[in-house]
Amino acid sequence: MRFRVFTDRRFVGYWMLWVSFALPLPAYAQKDSIALEPVIVKGFVPQKFMSGLKIQRIDSASLAQVRFQNISDVLSAYTPIAFKNYGPGQLSTASFRGTSANHTAVLWNGLNINAPTLGQTDFSTIPVAGFDQLSVQYGSAASIVGSDAVGGSVLLSSQASGKPFHVSVGRQQDSFNNPQTQTDLRYAFPLNSQWAFSGKTALYDGRMNNDYPKPTRNTYALLPTETFQKGIVQDLFLRSQNDREISAHIWLTDNKLTLTPEDVQGREMTRTTAYRTMVRYQVRTLALRTAWVRDIIDYAKGDLSHPDHSVTDKFASRLEKDFSINIAGDLNPVLIKVGGEWTHFRSRVPGYAYSPVSENRTDIFLLMRWQPTARITTSINLRQGLVTGFNPPFTPSVGLEYGLIQKAHYNLTLKGSYGRSYRVPTLNERYWKDLGNPDVRPETGWNKELGLEQTFKASSGSTLRTSATLYHNRVKDWTYWNPSKSYRVENLQQVLARGIELQLNYQRQTGSWRTGLDAGYAFNKSSQEKAYDNYSQDIVGKQLVFVPAHSANANAFVQFKSTKLTGQFQAVGKRYITFDNSQFLDGYGLANLLAETTFVFDKFKLVLQGQVRNVTDAFYLNVRNNAMPGRSFALSLTFSYDSQ
Asked: Which of 32, 110, 575 is CA-nearest to residue 317?
């Protein structure tokens, strides 16, 4: 079944356009210097040792614009990550560079919060209100992050407040009777001459009733659903003048999804609840972290009063030490982080062959970064994981960044990395009754990438940044629920993902006017390279299902004083829905429009925002082959008070 909006030829046109932007620009003749980062780093900052890897940081202004939405909306608009979306308020999983949802690590303050039963995160359950900073790391970072970081990582972090007192309350009303409410409180004050205290308390509550005016679009059904979501975030920081820090973090979230709620016999309810807690202590270059996470999944069909109840507890502790070594009197020392992490899982799942099941995982790592000259930055990272029942492979990686051109107004940097990845099988893959396989092997792979990044700063105040990245990621022993053996889990595939990513960012400020453009394009060829049984022989060389070969996005804004107008465009190529590529959903393009203005009254601020989503009322289908809703509107009002 085909619905044509964008053809592959037009995507090739996009590719040629962004290649032209990625070519080097004329250089200027003044040399620029690069300052070394300090040895002491507050909290877990993995980016420090990710030399050669592509890292994209989503700025706070972009997050503030979508403060009432979830993280998948942000990543869809600003990154080439492909999402497998089941509909508004429903399951949404990420596909990094042609890998599956199980190959994306999601870290919250350095802790992997992927559910150990499923091995993935539902991005629809992570609202923007749940964190302060968002970074995206592309490619394998298993030597730094650990298991799951095969295609990439999403890094969420909390930030200490620098404001004595700040409070905000916001409300958004969407089309289809979908309201969202948020409250945010930040505070900071000194306790004495040595210690200072700061914190954040945030609450969010939302409901997606999805009251569509018509049950169908173009003869395709709009799946009736209801989603309730609520949560609380609590971050506390205690810092001293002599490089000591104690912090506590709590994130409680509850998400309830009901499909076809009016159908008493056929309705389905999935409720996911997560209790995430963490305490961190750092004294100079020694850091200790301990965490407890409980993931609860309740599922019922028809009669919702007696759902299946699954509970998984995760206990994790991490100890790390930073130090530096001078090499032959070199002024730039080698920065080293050495440490270990221990995690214990205990899970009670009705579908397992026996319950409860428990597992221990231990990781020992050595991370190194060296900047011998102003032009060269290198990193070498080593990790060895140990898991109950089997051992993951030794996981090394090496990265290099070289400043080809370093001028006052222009920089051109060559980046490259080569590293091994691995993924520990999920608890479901090993312990599910009849279908699980206790002998399934960990997936392993090698990721290679090479990129160019350039920055051009004009005297007029404008800044242009572009990048082009080539990648090649081969994954062996890809886990597969084999249809030829009643969907029993086996290591059946070897997958090769390769492609190119192009990105552009432009900013300009002239007086009270600001303009900007953030755009990107990605081509990804991800296919099975080898088959381990007769069933999969006919799909060798075929594009993986629901992985588009082409995707593009663009975000442009113009701002005058406190009024801002933003246009967003997202294009996705065709997605195959069968393994032999005989059927597919055609590509589509979505355009959104956001208008925002701010009114300031002394220490009070009022932000009024309006959104038009899917401006052109484009028609496209989701994973379930249901129609997605058409044009919709949202209006939000946020009131805040700042003591400064």
From this structure: 110
Mean pLDDT on 99-110 = 93
Residue 174 to residues 179, 208, 216, 633, Cα–Cα distance (Å): 6, 9, 19, 6
- Structure tokens that stand for 584 in this block: 């597919």
Total-model pTM: 0.90
Enter the tokens of residue 582.
Answer: 């005989």
Q: How confident is the model over 296-315, as pLDDT tens digits?
A: 999 999 999 999 999 999 99
Cβ neighbours around 181 below 10 Å, total:
16
CB 446 within 8 A of CB 421: yes
Which of helix, strand or coil describes residue 572? strand
Amino acid in position 344: H
> Residue 578, exposed/middle/buried by CB under 10 A (0-12, 13-18, 19+)?
exposed
Query: Which residues does residue 295 pair with via DSSP β-bridges, in sequence order?
Result: 274, 312
With b meaning 16 or more CB within 10 Å and e meaning fewer, what string describes 491-521?
A: bbbbbbbbbbbbbbbbbbeeeeebebebbbb
In SS3 terms, 511-541 reads as: CCEEEEEEEEEEEEEEEEEEECCHHHHHHEC
CB atoms within 10 A of CB 462: 15
Is residue 629 a contact partner of residue 212, using CB atoms and an 8 Å limit?
Answer: yes
The Cα–Cα gap between 47 and 55 comes to 8
